[in-house]
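Worked example 4.2. Below are the chains of a multi-component assembly; read each line carefully before continuing.
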Amino acid sequence: MSPSSSRPAVVVTGFGAVNAVGCGREPTAAALASGTPAWSEVERPAGYHRRGGGARLAGLAAGHDLSAWVSAGAARRMSLGSKLAVAAARMALADAGIVAGAEVGGKPTAMVFSNAFGPSMITEKILTQIESEGPLAVSPALFTESVANAPAAQVAIVCRALGANVTVTQREAGALIALARAAGEVARGRAGYALVVAVDEVTPLLHAVFDRFGALSRPDAGGEEARPFDRRRNGFILGEGATALVVETAESAAQRGDRVLARFLGTASAFDPEAPATGWGSDPAALTPALERLLARAGDVDAVVCGASGSVAGDRLEAHVLKAVWDGRPPRGGSEGEARRLPPLLAPKAVLGEFGGAQLAAAVLALAGEPCGPTPGFSEVDPELGVTPWAGGEPAPSALLISSLATGGAAAWAVLARAAGTLTPSPSPRGRGE
Amino acid sequence: MKDGPAPGHRVVVTGIGAVSGWGWGADELWRGLAGGAAAIGVPARFDTRRHRTRLAAEVPPSPNGLAASVPGWRRLSRADRFAVAAAMEACRQAGLEGDDARGFDLGVFFGGSTAGMAECERFFHGLTERRRARISLLVSHPLNAPGDAVARLVGARGPVQSLSSACASGALAIGAALDALRDGDVAMAVAGGADSLCHLTFAGFNSLRIVDAEHCRPFRRQRQGLNLGEGAGVLVLETLEHARRRGARPLAELLGAGASCDAHHMTAPHPQGAGAALALRSALGDAGVAAGDVGFVNAHGTGTPQNDAAEWRAIEQVFGERARRIPVTATKGAVGHLLGSSGAIEAVATVQCLAAGAAHAAPGDGGADEDLGVDLVVGGARPLAPDCVAVSTSFGFGGANAVLVLRGWPR
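Applying the procedure described above to all two chains together yields the following structure tokens:
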């Protein structure tokens, strides 16, 4: 959504998350502050993975106790994605001081979700039923939960959300497109508030397929670790989870007396038609005009929450896009001889994995005053990229760009800023676990 | 009701494309719709023998020469192929062929619910049967694949959005394009949806016992459920100023869009049609038209007893006593339920009705269910005024609702 001067300001007032490191703000913030991921071994007995070598790790969230947010009865009817989404949504609502089911400002509530691959586990179960017992054996309860918008529907029922219910499926760019749509829903006055939820699950088959496509970091190719922007990066690590944000107008937040976690300043998206379906393009010029227009509208930022995940091609393209936009250009209001410097680069997927809303979580928490820790896995600058991700100890950002370049060619960006009056956060710790 | 339409640019439709059980092309679709018959039968390619029901609206083999004209055709899923064929046709009609169409002002907004699931099923079959499967079958499995394929084909450099909100996906995508055009984020958009038949959806809908073993009969008393279909529908949308500058002829105006959620049940509609009525009112408000201005409804009309009844209640709530005098048709009776792309192909059909000045008939015998009171178009086309305002409704699983408001563009 392009910001319009006639449209009201939009803010984030609630945060919730369930991911590999735990449930809620505290474990996510602690993991990001210390730069400590929580990878687990993915089940491989089904034999989907390649034999010998091959990726083993993912950030899994299936083992958490969600009973505080999802009743046992409801959980039985839900896919993992739906359960994660309901839990994260309830956390975000509580954080924003909104009672589930209540409307804000007398307007309906909108739900805008992102989901890269749908409820994969349910899909696999149905396909297994068809293969082993025939199509007549397919369970209606499973089929109901197999649609990509099942998590959004389940959360809508919990929240009695009667506004637009939209699920964006634009892979890595989906979460930012969802944030933009949600901001549009509240700014246009269509919704009193909107829940943005990025939710993704990891199944053994999905993991194996990514591995076969060569997308994941592997132990037999230099060590299995997410190494954003590092010279030795050899793929990403999948992350499961849900990140939920409550988005509303600044006026609405003020009327409710709620504190603001972040201000939404604008968004943009673009596409590189030369990009292959299974990878990224190589020409930054396909994407830079949209990003430059966004920064011209939204103003300068002092950090970038990158989508860099350890992907060889994805990280390369992102670094080149960012450098093309920043390097050698004078800062706004600066003199001609002054060079604009690339701001510090956060790479939270090194901690939370690819998908599940890692970037939304890192961005909002950073602006809400949580410290940003070092980027695990990074130790060696890639001379082709020439960028170094966040080491810990950099000044806390007051405005940041979220950058997300998706497999297949889509890209999305958003600019968020610290709320007026937010205390400057303390510098982040320097080393892992310090 | 709002006093006027949502602020921003006026948006017109300058090209349409379709792939359906009637064939590869919008003309084929319109000939089928105007003929009043259904493209529903026992599929030749898609094997339904092991399923509870047999009928579907299957897309016939692609015309000669199409595969050769699309780069990378072999690697595309069936849904991708429907998408790119419909997009090519729509762009051709809009005069957007060639490099002049490519650019940062062109966005793609696409909805769907299966994408490459049919190919994924072949992969899974290989995996379970032989422990071996061709990984390339999964290239187009993700739900963004059809939209991305279209964006690559048309050379879009603006926003590309893929949406999957069950049967509302296609209409939601067109609504998203409308927002982007009004805001000036893009000057042109290719918007629509595509889906293909697959065993997962065929078995799934049958497991819910909402598939009619015979031809579906939307709004008829004997209705027993839906028939699945496959295909694509695509609109080229642009701002009126942009169309005038290019000398492009509008086919219709996209006046508004509305969305809502039932927040009631995962599969059953709200029995009183409350969510559907909210989406209708929201769309009319967005369009800046009064309920009394609407002259035609292309209904979601799946043919399931519950859905049609709930939809009629929503229409009654919004249009009041006039509801019984508004011509209503149901494109699904002719081409089946295209799931995530149903809203897109029904938007195409609505534009065709407006352009032809005639609402197509809902195939089948007999009038509407008298309990519903719907003025179903049967037995032949019904004339529409040149500047008729039409609504096209889409209501999906999970209670996702989307409504489009279109107006005929007088010649």
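Take a moment to check your reading of the output against the notes. Residues 261 and 400 of chain B are 5 Å apart (CA to CA). DSSP finds twelve helices and 16 strands in chain B.
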